[in-house]
Amino acid sequence: MSRLLEELSGPAVTRTLTADSVLVLPTGAIEHHGDHLPLATDRIMAEAVATAAVERAVARGVDAWLLHPLAYTKSDEHSWAPGTMWLSGETLMATLVDLGRSVAMTPARRLVFLNGHGGNVALLQVSLRTLRRRFGLQTFLMGFPVPAGDGEVGPDELGYGIHGGHGETSLMLHLRPDLVDLGRAERRVPDHLGAHPRIGFHSTPVIMGWLSNDFHPDGVIGDPTGADATHGAAIFETAVEESAHSLEEIARFDPVPPISRAAGEPTGDIPGGTRQA
Amino acid sequence: MSRLLEELSGPAVTRTLTADSVLVLPTGAIEHHGDHLPLATDRIMAEAVATAAVERAVARGVDAWLLHPLAYTKSDEHSWAPGTMWLSGETLMATLVDLGRSVAMTPARRLVFLNGHGGNVALLQVSLRTLRRRFGLQTFLMGFPVPAGDGEVGPDELGYGIHGGHGETSLMLHLRPDLVDLGRAERRVPDHLGAHPRIGFHSTPVIMGWLSNDFHPDGVIGDPTGADATHGAAIFETAVEESAHSLEEIARFDPVPPISRAAGEPTGDIPGGTRQA
Amino acid sequence: MSRLLEELSGPAVTRTLTADSVLVLPTGAIEHHGDHLPLATDRIMAEAVATAAVERAVARGVDAWLLHPLAYTKSDEHSWAPGTMWLSGETLMATLVDLGRSVAMTPARRLVFLNGHGGNVALLQVSLRTLRRRFGLQTFLMGFPVPAGDGEVGPDELGYGIHGGHGETSLMLHLRPDLVDLGRAERRVPDHLGAHPRIGFHSTPVIMGWLSNDFHPDGVIGDPTGADATHGAAIFETAVEESAHSLEEIARFDPVPPISRAAGEPTGDIPGGTRQA
Amino acid sequence: MSRLLEELSGPAVTRTLTADSVLVLPTGAIEHHGDHLPLATDRIMAEAVATAAVERAVARGVDAWLLHPLAYTKSDEHSWAPGTMWLSGETLMATLVDLGRSVAMTPARRLVFLNGHGGNVALLQVSLRTLRRRFGLQTFLMGFPVPAGDGEVGPDELGYGIHGGHGETSLMLHLRPDLVDLGRAERRVPDHLGAHPRIGFHSTPVIMGWLSNDFHPDGVIGDPTGADATHGAAIFETAVEESAHSLEEIARFDPVPPISRAAGEPTGDIPGGTRQA
Amino acid sequence: MSRLLEELSGPAVTRTLTADSVLVLPTGAIEHHGDHLPLATDRIMAEAVATAAVERAVARGVDAWLLHPLAYTKSDEHSWAPGTMWLSGETLMATLVDLGRSVAMTPARRLVFLNGHGGNVALLQVSLRTLRRRFGLQTFLMGFPVPAGDGEVGPDELGYGIHGGHGETSLMLHLRPDLVDLGRAERRVPDHLGAHPRIGFHSTPVIMGWLSNDFHPDGVIGDPTGADATHGAAIFETAVEESAHSLEEIARFDPVPPISRAAGEPTGDIPGGTRQA
Amino acid sequence: MSRLLEELSGPAVTRTLTADSVLVLPTGAIEHHGDHLPLATDRIMAEAVATAAVERAVARGVDAWLLHPLAYTKSDEHSWAPGTMWLSGETLMATLVDLGRSVAMTPARRLVFLNGHGGNVALLQVSLRTLRRRFGLQTFLMGFPVPAGDGEVGPDELGYGIHGGHGETSLMLHLRPDLVDLGRAERRVPDHLGAHPRIGFHSTPVIMGWLSNDFHPDGVIGDPTGADATHGAAIFETAVEESAHSLEEIARFDPVPPISRAAGEPTGDIPGGTRQA
């Protein structure tokens, strides 16, 4: 049976979904990834992982469903680069609110963003709370690790292999080798950032605001030159298995401790929540 | 060679596109279509027609490209129906503006919305001018006819077969028969509207504002019971051929009369021209 | 008795209107119409037609009322021309939503936009659904035909006499000859568009986004040189009679088939609908 | 010669206006004024005063022009009353910004709001600076006094005759006696407010936020019972004469001291100056 | 006991406040005030007056509380001057709406803006009604007079000592002499404005839109050269005493006449009013 | 010399700041923190750390300046709790954009958000890129660790001591013991979340959307019962020292590698660069 929710009819959605259903929205991007990778890189990765993870979770008993992916998202760090098709943060947030409102009309209460584009993470985090507060949904965000090369696996990218680097290129060599042109790949590791160990893209004491051409006019951050399909396959398998595990846990998640809840007490759902048009 | 623009790299977009390129954005919908059709009906139709029309136009020498489709659009007439995933008009307009701004960064100047959902038409028309004014793009909107049954071909739908009726169901039987459940189809022609011949959905002296459950709680408008895959195939072929012809004409369209234009005079493009309104 | 709703007191509105009342809002424009016509052309035409049509409909038993006209509307296709006073699409939509919200506070449920400016059509269509969905109003849009010259009546404008051309100029010669300066009229038919028969302003397979100076720097589209007051009078009479007929039909329109409706069932009205400020 | 700017053609605006022209926009309201006055009271007063004042100023040599009036404005204090047609503050501000942007395309630099509705004053004041900053216009706001009855002229309204009271009703008896129904007038002076002398509608140490039904469910504030057309005529004459004087001064106003300005130095105009804020 | 509401816990707010509590929000500004005064001038004055007035009102039995001040407000007239930290009108209004919504969640119903920056007055006035209408709060605006020098007290500023002039500089010499540099003060009275007696900043028949560098590039309007701490102390004492009196009156203000109100009738509060997110 | 930027005059800002100056904006919150902590907890912590860190960084040669703090921020997870004064995400983003635009008018190019409220993190991250892209500023976000009790230092909060728990309460006992009421503190550790190890507040594979009363109606998440001022002092010292180090690194940060940059090449600053998105 198809697990693409869009393939059901409207009445079938009402007949089929329950409060335990888990709806998964892949969020990708159509954006510049250097000259060796297609614009759709993040979209392709997110859809591939989400599709496989939903299938695996379903096989393990989770009532998971795939929503039609969001391809156009927040890529303003690459807005300087022709080919990038970017939504402003305001537009993406409005889209997420509209979709959350729509989901709240169905019996499902669990909505998961499975994200393949780093530039979306902060905004998606903001939206988690907005959708929980306004529509009473249980909302979740998950991504999947695409590790930077460390000198043992792949070239040493010094932790900066975040855009078009070894991991991403390897994963694409696994998923869509026809769209990768390694002959155009060049090392673009911002070595000089090592002089600022407290400042980084994430997980450092200081997070910086950056555009992808802040470090090199190519807009690539990492070293794709030694990318490898076998390594990409391993990244993919880990991403799928980890995501499937997460969906299993989401399916049984309940924020309110079971002991303290009275019978029949609502779980925070706000049916018909805040209607706003 | 792929004609999916998202499969190019960013630099390839700059190398490949020219002012004569025609970018085609399919716009569908994920919305209630009754119990016999999938939510994705409009998305599937728009993508199928656009893909085939671009291919055919390319074969005839047009430099046409397919943009990644917009699946979530303006379905507020079905917002009452669980399963409908709808953007507000404001959100869809913001999305179109953002995509237009992005397209204006490429060498292409011709942007076509190939639309498969009637609820989008008016807003897309508004956006044509906005994108022309703000970004200097040549903008175009085209759909494809999905005729109502007239008693000769299909049941007589009295001109009201506009949502889930004979034509749409037939087309889906051609494109994705696995997603059609004719056993759940019922006649839902709003016969009583015949008493108001001046008031209609379009092309009448008076256009009315309507929600899809204004006429019947099922939200279907038409008679799908006799839908037919062969008729659907004919609708499809006409849609593709007509669309391909339109793309050919768009490729050579120029609003300024050639006699009066001085050599090198711009064609109305406003490079970098984000005029805030 | 005055049929201008603004001439009633607030309490009189409550005493006088019913669910069968039909409120008519003329929507014009203050915009460049070439050097032979006043900026107010569209406003004058819309008000004249609406006033006469309401009067005629009332004489035939319709409880029709004229709302104070909207003079400033969406004229962004002429925003390049000094004298044009234009609202952005966002501003006009906000205005229409505010007025719809206000109308929903009265006993009336039927709101008609009688439009005299082509640049408003698409946005008004969008608003029809918004006002129906948010405020439960029955909403309608009607215009009136101002035919292009075809070589028999008037010069042959090739179907392009849409702005400042033969029909509009003739109608103004009938309504306000003091404001027409035929001595400044010149033929501005975009003959070259004939090479693109599939692309047009409306009713063609492809609708284009355009600005009024895309075809000629004058911003006139049509041939006003032979405009004629007698022809204008005929256009006016047709417009009034057609509009009056439409108002009669609107007055008895009900989207729900009478057989299937239970006694006392609401007609979709949402009293107090969506309050938003 | 007409002084209605909308009666000029677009090119005539460019030929006729100069930096010394003064454009006057009457701002009224369509709102509940009790059961003895029409909804259009403020609109009628503002247009009558503005029309006469422009005519008088022109006779004294000012190059003044009347813009088509704004009838629908910010009447949210009466939003509870059926018949009130109100714009939100956001919508009115957007309208003013759009009109200011339009005016800035003409040769004129002086824009005057001649306001007849108290509920608009604060928002209009905000807009003065916005239009000066964003479009470089010289902007002005003026109203006209409609005095409360003080026991000598009219009943003693204790300074609270601000909405539907003695002055306003008298002025309407002068301008449009056919629309006044004194038989429905009742005294609605909020005497009890005298216990709070520091708190008032304006010009007191404390300004309060109020809705027009805060003081009496009728929404009238004042005592219209003894209204008088002769007194109304005097109010009108004063309003026109004062307004004409103000227009004369506006016509020669220049914020920069003439001594310190170099020849040819701009006066603060920002041609094309849409600075987004 | 602290009268800073932010020093209470959340539950203490519910335990402590009542419908008679008066919440006071000081609104200042961080903006250019010439070279002799700090950017924080308006913020410092507003906070000092508000703190002392609340204390004095509490001593006289008013249940007054100080909200954490708003330092960044609407200073767009000084947006040209580096150092000015300004919110757009839209942003400040959104902030006031959000704070009003928050206050409406507490038992308190009386919210007072105690404003120290002239550029905020009009927008704060607009917000008074918005917060009353949307959240049912009783809303009030008060400032404090900082008189222009008149030749007897201070230099003759001709009524134009409104920004960085004698009064403001004197008050700052009293409150924070360490931040005043009189050596950099210069006379900047726009004497030439005397030729336009009907046009002014407020309380004149015509109000103009202005930027602070319209009159002199320094952006100072007044004559600070003879500012005096003793005079500043007198201004401060008057401001505090007047403000305390006003708070006393606000504490017992009730718009509805006591005779006409039924027992238990609500005072216009809209608990849970208009939820909007 | 004061390091509060608001204490400078406008011209002094221009004279004093350079492209190497580092402007630090503390961002706190006024929100429910349980019954044992004041609403201002996050504001107090952020200001105290920022003030001490700036002082220490200045002593080490950094040209650091403190901007007036933002007290009201995004606390929608506590919007259910009276006393919380929360800005919507849209309002806070608008505020940050306005302040970024203002900072871009000064010579400084480095703007740091020093944040004390977890609910702000994601939105501040979004704003980093917005301000970099639109105004060309170098933007940075830093917080300071307030560790959960782990059973060795403080009670074992299982990693969930994130709101009103051991660390925060200890830090407040150090900073403002007068505002802490340990007698009202109770253990509120959501032990049951341990059953979902993959789902958490941050740094887990899945991030959830949550409101602070999802886990307990008190809205406290952690165990404040054993909070300790000495431990709070240690947290504070670490926060200040770490923040000072970060400011030192920010002061010399440059994203563009020095070798590849041509002399005089801009560093990505976009003077006047308000690119509308």
UniProtKB/TrEMBL annotation, chains A, B, C, D, E, F:
Pfam family for this entry, one: Creatininase
Residue stretches spanning the membrane: none
Keyword Zinc: yes
An example molecular function term from Gene Ontology annotations: metal ion binding
Cofactor(s) required for function per UniProt: Zn(2+)
GO terms, biological process: riboflavin biosynthetic process
InterPro entries in UniProt: Creatininase-like_sf, Creatininase/forma_Hydrolase
Highest taxon of the lineage: Bacteria
Record-stated family: Belongs to the creatininase superfamily.
Name of the protein: Creatininase family protein
Taxonomic lineage from the root: Bacteria, Bacillati, Actinomycetota, Actinomycetes, Micrococcales
